[in-house]
Amino acid sequence: MSAAIADLLTAALAREIATSGVRVFAVTTPATVAAALAARELGVPELALTAGFSALDGAPVPSITRGEGGLLTRGPAFRDDPGDVFVALARGRVGVVATPAQLDVVGHTNLSGIGEPGHPKVALPGARGLPDHCSASRVWYLFATHGPRQLVERVDVVCGAVPPPGALRRLFTPAGCFELGGAGWRALWLTAGGAELVALTPAFGIVLDGDEPVLEAPDEEALAALERVDPHGVRRIEFASGADAAHLWSAAAEREAA
Amino acid sequence: MPASLAADDLPERVADGALIAIGGAGLQRKPMSALRALVAAGRRELRVISFLGSLDVELLLAAGAVAELHSAGVSLDAAGLAPHYRDARETGSVSFFEWSEGTLLCALEAAARGVPSLPTWQALATDMPAINPWLREGRDPFTGEPVMNVRALCPDVALLHVPAVDDAGYAYLDGDLAYDGAMARAAGEVIVSYDERRASEPRLAVLSRLWIDATIHAPQGAWPTGCHPLTGVDSASVASWAAAGLDATPALLEPHA
Fold it and tell me: Interface pTM (ipTM) of the complex?
């Protein structure tokens, strides 16, 4: 994926977080951390970010080598009990940005494996927190690759249940932004070339009517905020693959080790 | 006050077949020197709890030391998937119990409270109980609402690593405590390795000496995982392990390698 699409999606997520009305967000990956930090600059400076498991209100930096524990590297944070993040989730106080490996037409998510539950042909990292937040989230954003292996009719393993209908349930992919409703996923906007990507995932059931708005360029204000909080573009690693990803990774690792 | 152990003393306290809880999360604060000592002593059939695993799980799997693994996820973060973990799951060479982050915490809390199980709302309406027999869906006896009953997970030993302890045995860290506190309260014995001694300020400690049975001085004991703020992740070593795939052996995680 191009850096331009990576920036467009991350900037869009930043704007979404800023306007969601939720004041605590759980973010873990470089792009979602960057988006949440940028959201603070888009009118919600008080936005709290859950960092690791013992700080609901952390001070993270976009980083590729420091892991979730490193999300606290910018400074000390109030130390919560690790269970508090689940309490806050259960009480609808936390918005979530998740990155499942598989997502299906009704909103189930999978990060466990491909194949029969418990007997994966391809083992993925593991369910992580998907079973813990999906059914409780008031605001639920997903980041996913737009391809037939990721967006499927039925996930192989149901790790995450579907957030309730009253929740905001949106998916960001290189094809655009989609919302889950009673009739499945529908496009809110597409990227340039997004319609072609949607056509590659017929099992996922998105039907385009041809007049969806096309977002050609990132929200300029959000992009400027992203550049301030993530000047080295660590967010783009999440969207890269192959040699591009390797190059970005080694550059980030070298910079962060210095 | 916790006992002070030499690194060589550790294997005596972890029997073959023991259920060990490994602290830290992802590529942070894994007690790697302690795990290397277990591998060097030839420990086998270990039953391992690693809330979020990385090179800790990889090392033990590569050494053939694991019979059973409990985790909510294992990966090498941006360096990619964990090769030995993937292979173990795909071939079924170890018994794998897949947890969610929340249900694993619940299982440790049940152990700490001394109850056989605890109910939670987590993992409801998912496939998790179908792949983890420690989770069982039921009904709340008061309201009839669906609940997930989570069986207690009682580690024999918790192995944790922190940047510093003081002379009294309190443990300190600046980064994410992860599930170390829950593991310490649930385990039969708690052994904490540490990089440095520091002045005693118990009000700033993250883990009371009450929960710690023994400490081991292990400078850079988390290497190649990070130990914020003292050391970051050794990304080159993580990448080397990932690149080696199933050819990665414990020797690759020796500090001199």
Answer: 0.95
Identify the CATH number of the domain in which residue B171 sits. Answer: 3.40.1080.10
Q: How far apart are CA A66 and CA B224, in angstroms?
A: 12
With an 8 Å Cβ cutoff, are B100 and A111 in contact?
no
pLDDT tens per residue across span B176-190: 889 999 999 999 999
Mean pLDDT score, B155-166:
98
Q: What is the pLDDT of residue A75?
A: 53
CATH code (residue A236): 3.40.1080.10
Distance CA A27, CA B58 (A): 26
**What pLDDT, on the 0 to 100 scale, is given for residue A69?**
45
Q: Are B38 and B62 in contact (CB under 8 A)?
A: no
Q: Using a CB-CB distance cutoff of 8 angstroms, which residues of chain A are in contact with residue B56? A: none
**In terms of residue numbers, what domain contains A61?**
3-174+221-257
Number of domains in chain B: 1
Q: By C-alpha distance, which of B113, B14, B50, B75 is closest to A113?
A: B75
Q: Tell me whether residues B178 and A157 touch, CB distance under 8 A.
A: no
Q: Which domain holds residue B194?
A: 3-119+155-208+225-244
Question: CA-to-CA distance for A206 and A177, rounded, in angstroms?
Answer: 11
Q: Find out whether A238 and A1 touch, Cβ atoms under 8 Å.
A: no
Res. B89: pLDDT tops 70: yes
Instruction: Count contacts between A and B (CB, < 8 Å).
Output: 180
From A220's Cα to the closest Cα of chain B, the distance in A is: 28
The reply to whether B80 falls in a domain is: yes
What pLDDT is attached to residue B216?
98
Q: Which of B56, B93, B101, B150 to mutate to test binding with chain A, by most A CBs within 10 Å of its CB?
A: B101
Q: Can you state the angle between helices A242-257 and B235-244, rounded to 10 degrees?
A: 150
Q: A76: which chain B residues are within 8 Å (Cβ-Cβ)?
A: 174
Per-residue model confidence as pLDDT tens digits over A197-255:
999 999 999 999 999 999 999 999 999 999 998 888 888 888 887 777 777 777 877 77
- Report the side by side order of strands in the sheet with B146-151: B117-120, B146-151, B135-139
